[in-house]
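Researcher: Here's my situation. A collaborator sent me these components and asked whether they could plausibly form a single complex. I don't have experimental data yet, so a predicted model of the whole assembly would be a useful starting point for our discussion.
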Amino acid sequence: VRNGSTEFVLDGDQGARPDVGRALSNGTGSTFSFADDGPARRVRRTWLDTFDWRLYRAGLALEQVAGSGRTELVLTGRDGERLAVAQGSVAQGGVAPSGAANGNRGRAGWPALLGALPPGPLRELLEPVVGVRALAPVARATSQVRQQRVLNADAKTVARLAIDQMSVTYPGRAKAAPRLAVAAVRGYQAQASRLGAELAAAPGIRLAGGSALDAALAAAGTEPAPRVAELQLKAGMPAAVAMAAILTGLLDAIEDNVRGAIRDIDTEFLHDLRVAVRRTRSALKLAGRALPGELASRYGREFKWLGDLTTPTRDLDVYLLGFETMTAGLVGATSEDVSPFLHYLERTRATAHRELARTLRSARFARLTSQWRTELASVRAVRKRPAVAELASQRIAVAQRRALRAGQNITAASPAAELHYLRKRCKELRYLLEMFGSLYDPDQRWQAVRELKALQDCLGAFQDAEVQREEIHTFADRMLAERSAPAATLLAMGEIAADLARRQRKARMEFDDRFAAFAGQASQARLTALTQAAVT
Amino acid sequence: VKILATYNIKGGVGKTATAVNLGFLAAREGYRVLLWDLDPQGAASFLFRIKPRVKGGGQALIHGKRPVDDAIKGTDFDNLDLLPADFTYRNLDLMLDEAKRPDRRLARLLAPLKREYDLVILDCPPSISLLSESVLHAADLLLVPLIPTTLSVRTLDQLTDFVAGFNGHQPQVLAFFSMIDRRKRLHTQIAQDLPAQRPDFAAAAIPALSVIEQMSVHRAPVTVFSPRSQASRQYASLWQEARERVKLGEPR
């Protein structure tokens, strides 16, 4: 038992009132005695995490504890030590962009974005981990907690015990084995450690292997952070079978994110859904010929339809997520000047999202995903050749050549469209490298894409600024037509456009060096060597 | 952090009883309190069932060989910690004499605890010595229990004069009557008149009651085992006065 508290689990049937003192005296004669410390408390506990378990993966646990008329949020680290506590919870309904709270009345506004949490150290600790994702309940339980004091031979309290009898209510209903938390009183670590050793040796008591959240999830029959096993391709696999497996994985990713995207829990659901759609389209376009019949062209059209419908909402999300940064550098305009623009973006985004939600609920979308899954499941290897490694190295070589050629054609006078064309070729190359990534050595793969990544970042900055600059002109036209924009707002938007142009120029100036590094012999050789190694 | 010290040259006037009861009351209000039992007899440590022992003794603490932090023990009460007595404290004077700036030594030892505690209470042994001088320099408020006699009022005046002679930081002095025997006319007379006349006297006065003596049987502050007794009420009112004098803000 060190600073903080150590947790134990009481096994077997403990009845309604587990008796630690008896459990101990059944073992060796203990010198400790136990005294109740106040009446038992009932607390309602809700553990929160992002959809992709960012907190859990970072070794953190966020718990909302409600009882005796107060609610607090508690953030604990890997060893169970308390990192921060905040009084209160999220504001009722002060939640995700739209609608999510409606089905959750009386549940204190989860899921919620970080901005809805009380400001303070807890929120600051969460920010870098949680980012733009929403926090939603991953488990709920009620606990009956009985406090006891542990006394030494002088009847001095040397440690405090909390006996926690937990009934899990979500994601399933179950009773968890009682847990015992031992916290040493300051200056009595040695005696508390002795108590800990006695407890660990007592029959029916063992050190807890995981946190209370782990125990709650285990009792409910699930586990935290279910990680989809990364697809492991074998070099000799028939290409058709490998492609079907890759595409099924991407379909899983699409379907995993549909509900969150419709309910608009946070912007990452739509983003992840779009990435999976784009990868599907690239896979069909670049390696679809490995699939039987007309599958690739038929579904290519459907996924283009889906991808296009997700674009307006995502573009506005990007605008809104970057709004603060974009307007932070304004010199002439004030925040009041830009607020009509912000409201316009929010309104437009809400409309776009309604349209998107309709699409994702449509019969056409349901048909697309279910039929696609059936088609992929029925893909059989008619021919053994090509093997996936051959297909991969051939397709990657083609993509590599295309990207090089596109880049070499770019001169100082080239229009933005040519850089955009190169960007798309680079994306294709990158997707292929990721799609077939499990064929290659991870270190080598990371080395091979280094220059490509840097080039893509530069092209991305250039193109995003280009799109946003064009869009801001369109927005201004529409706002003017709607008479929703005062002159000051339009002027502020002009300032934003100018700043975007500056950023775009900066990216354009970096381009030559970045491309030269990518097109250089060393970088190209690393790429070629990567795919060759898998074939031979 | 604010530092209170219970101080009197004489022994057996209720210093320790005051220190432990005020410590408990402050902790119960949510202040983080450290009580330092400086008396080698270790009465405060005994009352909290904590062994009067500090590893390395007073020597290690005074000379900074062992951080004060290491010696601190939690009491049975939330927010209330104790720095136990040690038999070597009887030589604290000699130890201080060897240290640099002995009269400022205690203040320096307490400096690192500023962040961890809102209130430090020093329970001093009865004496006039280098130690008491060091305590006087460190404290924000001296709580001086007095038995109501003319002589003890003279002692208070001497103390006030002594403190007034300090350069720089001077602690406030708050005297209060303790161990008032209601059967003695002189006691009741002085206890009634003086507080009204002098601003350095508290309105609260602690009567001589057997319930206070029972603290050593219960080994707990009277404010814990007999919270509604007259003694407890007087300690509560003394704590409020002391809190206002040192201008302690609301607990976190």
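Model: Some features of this prediction you could bring to your collaborator: Chain B has a mean pLDDT of 91. The beta strands of chain B are 2-6, 33-37, 73-74, 80-83, 119-123, 141-146, 172-180, 201-207.
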